Amino acid sequence: xxxxxxxxxxxxxxxxxxxxxxxxxxxxxxxxxxxxxxxxxxxxxxxxxxxxxxxxxxxxxxxxxxxxxxxxxxxxxxxxxxxxxxxxxxxxxxxxxxxxxxxxxxxxxxxxxxxxxxxxxxxxxxxxxxxxxxxxxxxxxxxxxxxxxxxxxxxxxxxxxxxxxxxxxxxxxxxxxxxxxxxxxxxxxxxxxxxxxxxxxxxxxxxxxxxxxxxxxxxxxxxxxxxxxxxxxxxxxxxxxxxxxxxxxxxxxxxxxxxxxx
Length: 262
Prior knowledge:
5-stranded mixed sheet; disordered C terminus; Rossmann fold; 2 domains; 262 residues; 12 helices; 4-stranded parallel sheet; alpha/beta
């Protein structure tokens, strides 16, 4: 089986280690992974800001890069949503629309690919301790996906999963929303972070780079010991070494729960 990694612009600039871990994880699972050159933004910021013609230009440039891909794996639910739900509608030419629909069909957010395509839900945690999960808006509401990340986290050997109160509520990022309305964004974030800390988890897991940026920044500013990690940073396939690698998170998920967990 072959899969192409769509790294996304935030992943490329701010979370390159997540891309590395995804490639290594999938290869350990027997997947032939490639990385099409020339990738840029998927066009979501333009689309969400109302620049649909400009977003369509980005989509037209992106489609040929993945034309020969059997599957496309995306580390962010928001970018996967853009490709799956908005690319076809942006293409007015029948040929390009058909190509966009084919790409939409073979594009998956990481947890979806692991669970729905590979049928894998059992992994070992690369970092120990209690973890909780934040539902990103585009993954939950756009793609209707809440089960795949939880199917993995609930079975994650070496970690304890606890549900996050208000886990389905926005973190306040919303792309340019956090820039245009920073006070509202901060108020939404403060509620999210208080709920995270109340779980006693040492790590909050998300499947979207935008949410990770938003929550990581807020946690650092309030001096919290909780860390925000991408799902890929937790996962080790069966038989993988438990020794830290150069891409392993420099933390664990013990947090406040560490003293209470037997």
